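B., you asked whether I could sanity-check this one before it goes into the benchmark set. Here's the sequence:
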Amino acid sequence: MAKILIIEPELSGHHRSYLEWIVVGAIQNGHSIVIGTTPCAEKILASDPIFNGLEYVLLELPNGAMKFGGFLADVQREIAFWKWSKDIFNKSTGHTVVLLPYIDYMLNAISLLGTPFQKIPFFGICMRATFHHKKMGINTPHSSVSRVKEFLFKRLIRLPSLISIFSIDESLRLYFSSYSILNVNKIVYLADPSDASPSEDKQISRYALGLPLDKVVILIYGAITARKGVFELLTYLELSGRDDIHVVLAGKQDENVRSYLASNSSLNSKITQIDRRIENAEEVELFNACDIVWICYANHYTMSGQMIKAAQYNKYVVTKNEGLIGWICMKHDLGYVLDTMEVEDINKSIAGLSVRKINKTTSWRVDHSISKAIHTVFNVIN
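And here's what the prediction gave me:
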């Protein structure tokens, strides 16, 4: 069995959840693990039973390794991260393979500079590639560097030591399926994993959470910020005058959202706020309790784990006609895609809830289980 060096310095959002199921999957498959991370992250992981007894290689990130900007600034950031990863690799011993849960940290840098892991084979998960979106009919802004990024991606998959690159964007694998370029089979679709515990009786969950039993409940989940379309939904709530809708804001709010809610007390009876990190058991209740999951990101064109959760709980998604989320929502008939954020269009999206027929057996929902993801990822080295 392999000794896997897993490199991940970040623990926010999906980074933590991905690291958890990857570690569980590696252990289930009989592999030993070394985690390359920062001293700060190691202190957090040490308190989690999943990571008990694991070996760590610790190194502070250099300045600029996590600083995002334009394309050139991103390349500089990636190079800084590439150098940090190389130092992590050189500090650890005995590993036979390297796994990058978020290869996007240095995807272009690896293409430009080659592997930082000498001749040790490596594989990684890609989450943010968008160079192919326009050609796949996905509504994303024009980028002047798309051709450059596509060239670098093709260069990356030619690296002899790259075992596979997994993409949570199904359109990326579809895009390359028509290509005859060498090593295209290294690109593997990984259904963005999540496990769910759907209930047939949402009223039980509503009662447990203190939510109204007789209203249409719309859930916004995760970090509660402007980029989630929070203000657009709350403005709709005010302008529409509807009293049959209740909005749940479940997750830590930023100061802008808190200030807005504090100055609009008339909304208090129409919303429920859970302004903190949501525990796993609460997440189950929230998704069971709601009718609609609102996923109306601003300037976000890649995948959303919340859409996966909504689908697994057989919930109706309302999103915008933008990016991968809008494309998938239409392709797999997961809900309603808004062309505008006007009251009339949002009314139509909510009206669609009453006529929607849920296909609970669609393979797209089933494919996104954590057990399926573990099999997909570790199958390449078992």
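One thing to flag: The first strand starts at residue 3 and ends at 7. Otherwise nothing jumped out at me.
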